[in-house]
Amino acid sequence: MVAALHPDLFRTLLGRHAAGVVIVTAAVAGRGRAGFTATSFTSVSLEPPLVSFCIDHGSSSWPVVGEAEHLGIHFLARTDHHIARAFAARGADRFSNARWQAGPHGVPVLSDPDTVLVCRTEQRVTAGDHVIVLAEPLVALCRGERGTPLIYHMGRYLSADPTAQRGWSPPSTPPDGTALLEGRHVAERPFGEGAG
């Protein structure tokens, strides 16, 4: 029998996978509200519409998310990196410096992200030390045009350049401070350190 990868090695390898960034929010009467930054969001089905994300069952957000009938999934743009950091912080009141209001079904809706899905929780599936949450989008809140998406890669928040065209050929040496990711330039410097 072949041994599984060591968790530390597995975590490092997963960091090589670039992922979009969302914030999941929920509220339950008597338990309060919760929110966390996630990179595990994905679409699951078009008919019926289903999405999913994963949460560590040891997370401080799990007691609320584990009971919530409805959830908010906020798609983050490049300009939302500060919100991603705030909702990834441990031991903090993540809503204290966030602008938000109660949205449909009582879900806490953040004011900054320009796209929010309000979903009904359909199923929770335990998978190792995490829980996969399947949810059905009920309401889409869209404000203005979609900004450049926020990406998480190798422990840093990055931004894809949406102006890159198909068939574009990169120079032999990418511009300073960039790397190529799927035909788009991605800032290699973490936000807050001159990446803008």
Automatic annotation (TrEMBL):
Residues 182-196 have a biased composition (Basic and acidic residues). This is Flavin reductase family protein. Residues 163-196 are annotated as: Disordered. It comes from Nonomuraea antimicrobica. Pfam families: Flavin_Reduct (PF01613). Residues 14-159 form the Flavin reductase like domain. InterPro entries: Flavin_Rdtase-like_dom (IPR002563), NADH-dep_flavin_reductase (IPR050268), Split_barrel_FMN-bd (IPR012349). Keywords: Oxidoreductase.
